[in-house]
Each structure stands twice: as C-alpha cells, then as structure tokens.
Please model this.
Amino acid sequence: MPADNQEPKERKSLDERHRMSELERLRHSCAHVMATAIARLWPDAQFAAGPPVDTGFYYDVELEHRIAPEDFAAIEAEMKKEIKANHPFERLTVTRAQAVADAQRGRLGALADRPVSSKFKLGNLEDIPEGEEITYYRSGDFVDLCAGPHVLRTGNIGAFKLTSVASAYYKGDERNPQLQRIYGTAFKNKTQLEEWLKLQEEARQRDHRKIGAEMGLYVIDTEFTGPGMPLWLPKGAVIVEELEKLAKETEFAAGYVRVKTPHLAKEKMYRTSGHLPYYAESMFPPMVLAEEGGGRVGEAAQAPVTRSATEGEPPVERADSTSGLRTEPTRYYLKAMNCPHHHRIFAAEPRSYRDLPLRLAEYGCCYRYEQSGELLGLMRVRSLNMNDAHIYCTEDQFAAEFNAVNQMYLQYFKIFGIEKYVMRFSTHGQAGLGKKYVDEPELWLKTEAMVRRVLDQSGINFVEVPDEAAFYGPKIDVQVWSVIGREFTLATNQVDFAVPAKFGLVYRDRDNTDKTPLCIHRAPLGTHERFIGFLIEHYAGNFPLWLAPDQVRVLPVTEAQLDYARGIVNELRGEQVRAELEFSSDKLMGRIQRAEQARVHHILVVGQREQDAQSVAVRIHGRGQQGVQPRAEVVADILAAIRQRRA
RNA sequence: GCCAGCAUAGCUCAGUGGCAGAGCAACGGUUUUGUAAACCGUCGGUCGUCGGUUCGAAUCCGACUGCUGGCUCCA
Model:
C-alpha cells in the first residue's frame, strides 16, 4: 500500500495541521530543506506541496531537469549545508494580497524573486478558505507558503536520506500536470535512521516476489499467460489447497453450503447487477458470439479486441427480445465478481423464510482488467481466486450473521498470528447518490446504522471512513499488518441492499408475501493471490508446518540407514504428510544447508545411532537442532501440529 | 492509463563501439558422508522484440513489450 494514500478528501483544518507529531514536524521541515537545496541547484524549480508521510516526506516539484537517484548526492550535500547553517524557521503571517503578490513575483517556494510566478503556490492559495490565516515559513533565503508547523531550526534535523523519485499529479488530479515527487526520510538521529534503513532492507528481503521465486511458489509468464495472471507451481499450489481446506472446514462448520459457477456470463448478468455501467473499464472486454444455434465466433471477436470496445455506453442489449427472429450477437464477459452468479443460484428455486439465512460459498475465479501500472506480483493481479460467499438473510437476521462473519475473521487472524488489524468501515457520501452510489438515501442510512451497531457491540477494532462505500452498500475493508509491520488490505466485506432487488430475488415470508433479502458479501481470506502474498511476507517464507510446501525431509547419514529413512517417509506420507527422502552424493552438511535454504520445516537426520534406537534427530527450519527423540513421538507430534494448524 | 528507471544463461550479476563472462543451479563422474556448501568436468545466451546509426552494436538512437518505483484506480 502506498504510504501516503490517506490524503484526506476534505482539506485539513489549521488546527489539525498543528497536531503534527514531533517526528512529522521534523520531516516536514526536512522537506523544506530539500526544496531549498533543489532551488539552489535548479532555481527554476516550481514547488507544489511537501507534506510528511508515514515513511518520511516528499516534495512535489516541476522541473525541466529529470531528477534521478544520481542527483541525490548533490542535493543531499546542499541540504547538509542548510542544516549546518542552522537557520531558524521563521513564521510570518501575511495578507492574501501580499501572498498573491509574492507568488506572482515567483518568491514562494524559492530563494529569491523570479521572472515567473510560483504557479502551484498560487493554486494552493486559492484553496485556502477566506478568513483562514495565511502564513509563510522562512529558513535562510528560502520562503515558502506553509501552514507549518516546523522545528525551531534547520539544525534540529538529525539525520535524513533521500530515498526515491516518482511522479504525481498536482493535487492528485490526473487532469493536472505531472510533477516529480522526491521522497526522503528523516529522523531525530543517525541511529534511528539506520534502524529504519535496516528494516527497509529486511522488508525487501521478505518481498513476496523474491521469496516466491526462491521457493518456487508461482511464476507470472507474461509472454504466454499474460501479465497479472500467476501460474501456481506445485509448491504454491500446496498452499492454495491448504487454505481452501481451512476455508471449507470453517465454512462448513458455520453452516455455509458450497456452489460452483462458470467463469463467463452473458452481458445481461452484469447489466442487471448494475456492474457494467459502473465498472466496464475494470472488466476484460467481452467475447462476441453469434446468436444461439450457430455458436460461431462472430466477426467482432475475430477482429483485434481493444479496450475501446467497452468505452462509452455499450449498445443496448436486445438478445432477449421475444421476436426470436433476429440474430443479435451475444456478448459474454469473464466474471469480475461472483455475486451475480450466486444471486442466480438464489433465484433458481423458490425460497422460503425458513431457508434463510442461506450462505452460498465458493472459491470463485474472477478476472479483472487492472491497469498495467497497478499490477504487483501476487498483490494486484488480473486473475484472482476469491474466498467468496454471499449470505442472504432477513433484516432480523442481519446482526447475528454479520457478527458471525466478523468472528470468523478473528478466528482466522488467530490462526495466522495476525495481531494488528483494523476494519475500515466505508460509508456513502451524500453527493455521490445516484452516481457513485445507488440512489436510496434512506436504505443507506439504515444499513450503515445496522453495521455500526454490530461493530460497536462486538468490540471489533474499526474506523469509519466516509464516501468510500461500494455502489450497492457500505463496505468494510480489512487492513492487517504483517509481523514486520507492513500494511495490507486483505479482504473486503460488503452489505448489499440493492442488487438482490435488481435480480428480483425474493423469499416468501411468514405472512405469505414476497420480500427481498439482504445480502452480505464476505471474503475473510481475500483472494488466494493476495492472501498468499501477504503470508509469504508475514512469515518471510517460513510457513508453519501445516502450510509449509515441504513439511518433512529425512536425511539418512549413510546408505546403511536408507531403509530406515524410507520407512519413516512412507509412514508420514501414509498420513498425508508432505515428506521426502534425500540421499544424494552431498555430504550431510550440504544436504542440511540445502534443506534449510529450501525452508523445509522438519529436517530429520537418521544415522546408525538413531536407527538402533528407533529414534530421529530433529532439526526445525530456522530453529536449529531439537535433539534426538523417539520416532513414534516425532511422528505423533508432526501429525498433531498439522491437525491443529499450530503456528 | 500517466511519469521515471530498468531488461545480459534457470537465479544473482560483471561486461560503455572490436571474439559473450563469473558464481550458484542443472547434467556427468569421483566421494559414502553426523547438523548451514566435498572434488573434477560438461551443458547452457540471436544480450526482451523490431527498426535505425556505424566498417563493426549487448554497448549509441527510436518504437514496442514487460518489469520496478510512484501517481490515478481498486466492485
């Protein structure tokens, strides 16, 4: 997740700004120092905004010269001079007229007057509401329009480092010019900076793309399969299957029933669900088939299909016209979500209130056309297997069902050792009604209140975020933190009060009238892709026994123990344990290193002593030797650890 | 999709206009082994693709594809 994606929609009040932590204040000050240095090297630089972020700070700048990492040393050298000079940060209050005049003289975000205006600063001034105080901060020659706050003097910036250069749109709007965004970080002292750099390095070492390749979990074959469509290799597929097993057991116990649905559906499906007008851009372009009977691939599909095929308003669907004479082509879409399919399963039979809640579960494979620049290893993909389920229930059942879903989340968190999480409860925004959100103002408020009540009562850790809901109802995004503190959005939960009605879903109630059920969309394990990506980084590839692709490797010391070793392997495999024998020409040391590097969970060494005593020498990956134990005990312990999904 | 950077053997990387390289992996052999690498040898690349400049291109230029870091987006 980008570190600075919490940029608020609403402008921060001065009061909120002044609540900056000490570290943020230091980092923001460092951004000014960096801007000073850049202005010295390239006086025509035009600065936009330079706030602190989670990992440090950035400043957006427009500049003919393309700043590259090779330039960092020069910029940092200038910054050091500024820090050594120990300029005070002076705060000046000015009138709007004064600020506009200074900006027109190019004096803001600059070292001196310039022949061109400080155009982005002028733009920023426009955003400052009437009546709000306008302030400058001056450090040495550098004067900037800035609400502050800052540290007292440039010398208070203890240690800093420029980290990367990227690009960003002015004010985050893609219609605005793209600026160069220079990232850096700063700390009170050198020790803290070095600790942070070490942590960054550790995070890089844990990157799921790196470990995924090392362990042979998956590949992305961009040339033949396509970008964003991982192929699970045997060792990765093991993890996929273990997760599915966990989900199936958990959902079975919670009263879910499983269904299976195809990967394609007719256009009518997504037109009815309402997804098409909202989300056509995020779906793969349709396949066009000649109408029923022929089944032949139509002309349109033989021509190269481009994204523009779905741009604008797609042609009106007439395939279901009752004339029966016309042969309109039928458009099929790869499914981007499972819900409409499940809705049709709900509709497949008459439903009674006695059937509710009906919980339909499926590990459904969906396809989403994510923009090329957003694909990221397993984290952002185009083909995804969702731990999906839809719970159809009455309003009276909602609280209990929704709470049970949350409890399931907590149960999973415990299994995976996820200690830090937060549920982001996204509600609708008034302004988006009828556009971003279905136009049902009262239903929105009612549903949101129901969700809020359940969350409040269950003691779940949540925050409420306005104007981020799904189009059909409020949404709960589940953010979790891996053991090293990286943040992930693992799953999304939604309450849907709109789409069941679009599909005409009803159940016959006690009073013999038809009513529309509520639908809860939930996916506690998210998608295999993202969840396994998270787990790789969470465990640094050192999976618990039940998930480890290689659970046990038995190493006979010499050929004389080959049969004994084989016996152990066969016994374990008979119990469905992923055990293998390794007897190559390598020395024992070499075989142990190989097993450690492959992250084999249990390494069982058997020499003559062990064979004679019917024992094994146990070594656990990353934890070293565990001593010699009776064979039967070791086997029993392995089976128990797997069965209990012990951490 | 946008901005920038990158693309050399399965992996990690060296090679700045003049014969395509190393380590690991793989394969073959020797070695029969007691807790993180035994030894010898062999194989392996149209230097991402296409085009241009040049006597000559991995190297310089352009386009495309993909990846990386961000931005926008994320049902």
User: Anything to note?
Assistant: Residues 1-10, 294-324 of chain A have pLDDT under 50 and may be disordered. Chain A has three domains: 14-204, 235-261+353-539, 552-643. The first strand of chain A starts at residue 46 and ends at 47.
